[in-house]
Design brief:
Length: 213
DNA sequence: AAGGATTACAACCGCAGAGGA
DNA sequence: TTCCTCTGCGGTTGTAATCCT
């Protein structure tokens, strides 16, 4: 009963600077676990879920802010072509970037690209040239945009045939580099999950991320 | 300069899986 | 074994900032 009342009073919406400071303090104190507990003891009128999201997507010390670099963009395109909308998996390959950030980036940028490409085709080609242009795609950007072709109004995913086709292309590329999926981490020179985000902050050295469990 | 359209990003929601009691 | 809580994920929405006419 009281819990229901509490839920009703929970704060929503944008975080204030004060809330950020408070959350930061308590996460450093208790670690990145037990978000409901942190939400309670911190006195923030937020749900644990909200606290976790704020921390992971904004306050985490390892996060990069600002625009994607061209390398990151390229990597996102490649990985999305391989994995589809598995944003968290993609994010693990991009240190300092969150799944949320990548998801947003994809939605805004790729949608735009797909639309531009579509407009170009409509104005310059007939139906038969579309299939031939698909088979000649060589750049990840082209692959991604072609896989993200839209129907009017809505975003449309690629067909399974398309997915497997493009996977074959990427596969061939990785094999050309002499690496398997398991070697991908090495290829990308990304540290393993646990050490993905290294805290420089000494306050966390005793605890650190992923310590819980 | 004003106002509408578009873009970029933050945050919420619902669901599913893992793990503990 | 079942239930409950916590965590993580992907989809979606809301809004501030920027661009364009």
């Amino acid at each position: 009963m009281a819990a229901v009342a509490d839920q009703a009073q929970m704060r929503k919406g944008p975080w204030t600077e004060q809330e950020d400071v408070q959350l930061d303090f308590y996460v450093r104190l208790f670690g990145e676990r037990r978000w409901d507990f942190i939400a309670k003891v911190s006195g923030l009128n937020r749900t644990g879920k909200s606290c976790r999201l704020r921390w992971l997507n904004y306050l985490h010390p390892g996060l990069k802010h600002g625009r994607m670099t061209s390398q990151e963009e390229q990597l996102i395109l490649d990985l999305h072509a391989t994995w589809g909308n598995r944003w968290s998996s993609i994010a693990r390959r991009l240190p300092g970037r969150t799944d949320n950030e990548i998801k947003n980036y994809w939605r805004t940028h790729m949608r735009k690209k797909a639309q531009e490409k579509r407009n170009m085709r409509v104005s310059s080609t007939d139906a038969s040239s579309i299939s031939s242009s698909q088979s000649s795609l060589t750049e990840p950007m082209e692959i991604a945009t072609s896989m993200f072709e839209e129907e009017d109004g809505g975003v449309m995913g690629p067909s399974m045939d398309q997915i497997w086709n493009e996977l074959a292309v990427l596969d061939a590329r990785f094999n050309h580099e002499g690496c398997e999926e398991e070697d991908f981490d090495q290829l990308m020179q990304i540290p393993p999950m646990g050490s993905l985000w290294n805290y420089s902050d000494t306050a966390l050295e005793t605890g650190g991320p992923g310590k819980g469990h």
